[in-house]
Amino acid sequence: MPSCEGMLGFGDRVKTVKERRALYIGRFQPYHKGHHAVIREIASEVDEIIICIGSAQHSHEIENPFTAGERYLMISKSLRAEGINNFYIVPILDVNWNAVWVSHVESLIPPVQVVYTNNPLTKRLFKERGYEVRTPMLFNRKSFSGSEVRRRMLCGENWEELVPPAVVEVIREISGVERLRELAKSDKEG
Ligand code: ATP
Ligand code: MG
Q1: Are 62 and 150 within 8 A, CB to CB?
Q2: I want to staple 68 with a disulfide (CB 3.0 to 4.6 A). Which of 45, 91, 98, 140 is the partner?
Q3: Any idea what DSSP says for residue 74?
């Protein structure tokens, strides 16, 4: 029987070097410069970043105007525009059951070793499952926030400066501002 000792091929050596994958979760309603700054930094620190689009089933609501597919486009176009390609995007439906949420996410994503989040509940749930959790820096949180972008869209203020150029293009393409303004109307108006 031939011995395999000392027969390590190139593939074997590669397999011993573990890939470091990180997870980042958001609703991205819409994707803004705060998210972009954080993801850019994470992508430079790890081999691959898995970006989960949370509350994927929600769209056409004041707080959640954009579909998962539209948010997918915003994120992927913004990252590719900067030459960042080491990412995967996975939409995640809500399960409304905190105790099983991490398992639900795990069932949909490639294995990750580290989770980046500022959300206290997300932090708690992943820590309890044994994950390394890191808290990224907040970038100009007052302006770079989904709520502020949506508010400016509704009020006719400059929302474009808060999002990457690719997001402006996507939102124009889908008439996103008009959608949000129509969602804000009531059927009691004349
Ligand atoms: P909304 O106001 O709609 O809740 P958001 O700006 O909080 O939007 P989310 O998609 O809810 O965006 O958040 C995803 C993640 O991005 C969260 O962990 C949140 O803390 C983080 N985040 C949001 N804004 C910033 C920012 N300016 N800098 C760094 N991280 C941010
Ligand atoms: Mg938020």
Answers
A1: yes
A2: 91
A3: H
Find the angle CA(135)-CA(158)-CA(77) to the nearest 5 degrees. 55
Q: Which domain holds residue 62?
A: 19-184
| Tokens matching residue 155 | 């009020």
Nearest ligand to the C-alpha atom of residue 29: 1
Residues at CB less than 6 angstroms from ligand 1:
26-29, 34-35, 38, 117-119, 136, 138-141, 144-147
Total domain count for the chain? 1
Is 176 inside any structural domain? yes
**To test ligand 1's pocket by mutation, which of 38, 49, 55, 124 has the most ligand atoms within 8 angstroms of CB?**
38
Give the per-residue pLDDT at 186: 79
pLDDT in tens, 33-60: 999 999 999 999 999 999 999 999 999 9
- Rounded to whole angstroms, what are the CA distances from 43 to 22, 35, 38, 91, 175? 8, 12, 9, 19, 30
Q: Is 79 helix (H, G, I), strand (E, B) or coil?
A: helix
DSSP string for residues in 129-155: TT-EEE-PPP-STTTSSHHHHHHHHHH
Residue 5 maps to a domain: no
- Report CA(133)–ligand 1 centroid distance (Å): 16
Q: Does some domain include residue 14?
A: no
Cα 89 from Cα 145, distance rounded (Å): 20
> pTM to 2 decimals?
0.91
CATH of the domain at 164: 3.40.50.620
Q: Is residue 1 part of a domain?
A: no
